[in-house]
Amino acid sequence: MATVKLILRTQQIDKNAESPLYIRVIKDRKSRFISTGYKFKENQWDEEKQRVRKSFPNSARVNALLSQRVADAEGHVADLERKSKTVSGRRLKEAIKGKSSVNYFNYAYNRLEQMKHGVSYRTYRGYKDCISKFENFIESKDLNFDDMTVSMLKDYNNYCSNVLENSNTTIKHAMTILAKFFKDAIKEDLVDANVYPFDKIQIKKEPGKRMFLNKDQIQAFRDLEVSQNSKAPVIKDMFLFSVYAGGLRLSDVLELQWEHINLKENRITKTIRKTRRFHSFKIGQVAIDILNKYNDEGQEESDFVFPMLENNTPFFENRLYANAEIERCTSLCSLHLKNIGKALKLPFNLSFHLSRHTFATNALNNGMRIEHVSKLMDHSDIGITQIYAKIISQELDDAVDKFVY
Question: pLDDT tens-digit profile of 253-267?
Fold first, then answer.
């Protein structure tokens, strides 16, 4: 037997000290909440009598409207329970509201497909993986927005931490993605903003730690012999090229063409794949030497510099093809760099992105101004670059602790 009651949700108090009033339907020990559209201050609502106090303007009229809403809700509940003994709380809620609630997974996946061509493939895959992980936890796609309660999200956090052994940073990122789609639905007026649960969840973010190769490790990387019967030599050159060419991201190194390079001026000029910003910068002699290894007489201006992507393909015309090719090359790079890192006995997993960290920390160590490092790395905000400056400061503090008595 379902019960119907008016509930002032004081945990959702707004800046005017008002809280939303809901109709609560309890069925099989599960609660469903339906907004009445009213908000009251706590001292204006009589919980015991289920009425607005007389001090509230037009209290008699408001109480009459609320009583009618409750009576209608009880009528819907009674009708459905007479028709079916197994009617769910959700079905009762839908009957009272007069329309079906919005399914979270249907909305999120559809919204993601709409975004697909406006974000990078890596971002698209990351968003999709986060939604899929949450779906695996729920073990069903049958989840409406208003079913996503604070307690459910806390259970999900515990699942990510204890079962999947995710770090706090990973969990916080996953929750941010889930919350994004919830906010999008609110903006589209599909979901009541009052049921948004994510602002009640606090996850402490772990301090970020940027790994990088120091000068000795870079030299050991350069001296390491790798198999010539694989792509390992090319991947090794690409990594070093990034270290000495402004920390270019893997996608930009992969799609680098000879038309982007001016060997007379030692300059690269191209549009950065991630930011879509036009970028032009000078590169050093080590990077030039690497380029010269791949500079053949018969090549075309449109040819890729590094032999990872095939020339004369629809790479720049077909986004899906390009994303698949970058994913393939990324996997191959990860495999070989991980093996190189093990061979060098590095105290961390070696990935291509560490070339970017390595460029930044070594440039700052060598005295380059942080504004110049930020410009070379195409950072939108110098605050991003300051993370590397903190690494240098921490290294200095560690050196003092070790050598100054």
Answer: 999 999 999 999 999
In a domain, 208, yes or no: no
Q: How far is CA 70 from the centre of its chain?
A: 41
Sign of CA dihedral 273, 275, 280, 281: negative
Farthest CA pair distance, the chain: 91
Could you tell me the two tokens for 92? 């009762």
pLDDT tens for each residue of 122-153? 788 889 999 999 999 988 888 888 788 888 89
Same-domain pairing of 77 and 117: no
Tell me whether residue 330 is in a domain.
yes
Beta bridge partners of 19: 40
Measure the CA–CA gap between 168 and 175, rounded to whole angstroms: 10
pLDDT computed for residue 308 by the predictor? 97
Task: Please compute Rg for the chain using Cα positions.
Answer: 29
d(CA 136, CA 131): 9
Beta bridge partners of 5: 24
Across the chain, how many H-helices and E-strands are there? 14, 8
Alpha helical stretches, state H, 294-352? 319-343
| Average pLDDT score over residue span 271-289 | 89
Q: Are residues 183 and 228 in the same domain?
A: no
Number of domains in the chain: 3
| DSSP 8-state code for residue 118 | T
Give the separation between CA 237 and CA 214, rounded to whole angstroms.
17
Q: Which residues pair with 41 in a beta bridge?
A: 18
What mean pLDDT value characterizes the chain? Answer: 85
What residue numbers bound the domain in which 243 lies? Answer: 215-403
Nearest-angstrom CA–CA distance, 100 and 59:
31
Same domain, 10 and 110: no
The answer as to whether 205 is a domain residue is no
Residue 206 belongs to some domain of the structure: no
The reply to whether 84 and 125 lie within a common domain is: no
Which has more pLDDT, 209 or 351? 351
Is residue 400 over pLDDT 50?
Answer: no
**pLDDT, tens only, 300-315:** 999 999 999 999 999 9
Handedness of CA 222, 224, 228, 232 (dihedral sign): negative
- Beta-carbon-side half-sphere exposure of residue 358 (alpha carbons within 13 Å): 24
Distance from C-alpha of 243 to C-alpha of 352, rounded to nearest angstrom: 10
Q: Take residue 13 and report the two structure tokens written for it.
A: 């108090």
Q: Which residue has the higher pLDDT, 396 or 114?
A: 114
Q: Do residue 233 and residue 372 come from a single domain?
A: yes
